[in-house]
Amino acid sequence: MSGHPLANHSPSNFDSIFRTAFNAYKNRTGHDITSHPLAAWLKTCDSPDAILAVLRAQVDEFDRSRRDDERLTKWLNPTVNVLYAFSATLGEGVGLVFSPAKVIFTGFGVLLLASKDVAASHDVLIDIFERIENFFKRLGAYTEVPQTTAMTDVIVKIMVEVLSIFAIATKEIRQGRAKKFVKKLVKGVGFQVEGVNKVVQGVDGKVDGVYERVQVVDERVKGVDERVHGVGEGLQCVDYKVQAVDDRVKQVTSFDVILRNWISPPDPSINYNTACGAHHEAGSGKSILSSVIIRDIEDICNAGFASMAYFYFDFKDTAKQDSRALVSSLLIQLSDQSDTYCDILHDLYSTHRRGSVQPNDDALTQCLKTMLVSLGQTPIYVILDCG
Questions:
Q1: Which of 34, 86, 129, 381 could link 75 by a cystine bridge, Cβ 3.0 to 4.6 Å?
Q2: Of 189, 220, 255, which one is at a domain's C-terminal end?
Q3: Rounded Cα distance, 279 and 272, in Å
Q4: How far does the signal peptide extend, from start to end residue (predicted)?
């Protein structure tokens, strides 16, 4: 059983969620992520491969001295592909100038740029990215199935959470950026110290102050470590939520099969194809009329304003000639379109010893009546045809 179709979402609601996330990023980092040069670059990307090419260039710049590309980039493929697919699914539901997924990818690039000169950030970033990779791999399975209201809400929240994680990490790493430079200065490593000796008088007298600054930086880094730990806990929480959604989808799919086997309705897809024109005499006009009616109502249902169920009484098929076949088919079709209708059918199943007893015709009919008079539901169109 699925929830309401994705079209039921309010575009303005999506806009508000993502704009709030973008503003939160700006408040944390001091930068408008949508106006970052990297955002303009990513905006022109029209495929996951194009996005990956841009992000790998940022990884190469960040990791040039360490050559640990594999650990930094292996998480990119599942993350980019899944976010790109879900962003495409939202489609016109988000009236923003930038795709939310591309803004998140910009946040990743900005984080790498902020971390380029901070040695201590390298392992921390890899840990964060590997955690993100783990649950996005699991989410990849849902890019192949129609999205429901509940699942889409989870995806939007995860996209916002990932951007928030990038914002926090960027802010904290920027605050600790001086550590690597200070350590080089104290140890007298390379040409940087030579340059300081040439332009700064009395550099020896400043070294004592540098040691004091190192102690301050170390304290701040400890604070960063504690906050990064909090980020890790946030990622774990998101992971648990994804696992719960995964388990729920499996449970619902399994129960859907059980209900279908229990009341054994005729195949509604065959009924639909027949009602759209098959088996009518040429020239009667009935085929065209049936097809037009069904398709017009389908448009209303796809917009989230109604539910529809159809049945074709086929005089050539004994399985499609009685009222029980009609009612059982309508029950399954309606329960596929609404959680409320699904719960009503589940109650019928539970009151018949969880499927060990077949419902009689009166019980099936009463179940259908309950669906038809349910409060708070959209109108129901029931289309019957015969031939």
A1: 129
A2: 255
A3: 12
A4: none
340 and 200 fall within a common domain? no
Tokens 């169920």 sit at which residue?
Answer: 309
Specify the DSSP class assigned to residue 148. B
Range of the domain at 342: 264-386
Clarify whether residues 162 and 285 are in a common domain.
no
CA geometry: angle 36, 40, 45, nearest 5 deg:
135
Work out how many domains the chain is built from and give that number.
2
Nearest to residue 82, comparing CAs of 10, 151, 177?
151
With pLDDT > 90 as the criterion, what percentage of the chain qualifies?
Answer: 7
Q: For residue 280, what are its two tokens?
A: 């009518």
Residue 1 located in a structural domain:
no
For residues 164 and 294, state if they share a domain.
no
Rounded distance between C-alpha atoms, residue 243 and residue 207, angstroms: 53
Angle between helices 323-335 and 268-275 (to 10 degrees): 100
Asked if 42 and 190 sit in the same domain, the reply is yes
What value does the mean pLDDT of the chain take?
A: 69
Same domain, 152 and 205: yes
Q: Is residue 44 part of a domain?
A: yes
pTM, two decimal places: 0.40
Q: What is the CA radius of gyration of the chain?
A: 29
Q: For tokens 């973008």, name the residue.
A: 22
- For residue range 87-140, list pLDDT tens digits in order: 666 654 444 455 777 887 888 778 777 766 655 556 666 666 766 666 566 666
Q: Which residues contact 226 (CB under 8 A, 6 or more apart)?
A: none
Q: What is the pLDDT of residue 13?
A: 64
Q: How confident is the model at residue 259 (pLDDT cuts 50, 70, 90)?
A: confident
